[in-house]
Amino acid sequence: MKGKHLLRLIAVILLVGASLISCKKAPVIDTRFDSLFRKTDYFVRMLDTTYDHYDAFGKYAEDSSDGKYTVTPIGRLIVVKKKTYNTDASYKEIATALSAHYLGDRRVNKCFENESGTVTIDCRK
Predict the structure, then answer these.
(1) Using a CB cutoff of 8 Å and minimum separation of 24, what contacts does 105-112 make?
(2) Given Cys at both, which of 7, 12, 93, 123 links 89, Cβ 3.0 to 4.6 Å?
(3) Structure pTM?
């Protein structure tokens, strides 16, 4: 009789343990920059497939689909500027997010915050 109770206890412990392991929370994904990434990805891809460089005057500037950023390609640099009403993220957070997004991407040398209050994606060869 004690053997059956012991087996049941072990089975319950194993089931509870297995259910706790399978209930791990999924990592939280920061989606604040999805719209920005889509726009910068477009310009980076175009530098890789269509253009050798953009013009020096920023005539191809476009806003992100959420309207929070203006993305301006100049030469082989892509400049990101926040709209004045966008208080969701600092330029440091934007530079960090872009650096993580393009980590390991051979087309992008680095992403950095400028002193002028913008972020630059360096795609120079």
Answers:
(1) 105/44, 107/44, 107/47, 107/48, 108/44
(2) 93
(3) 0.74
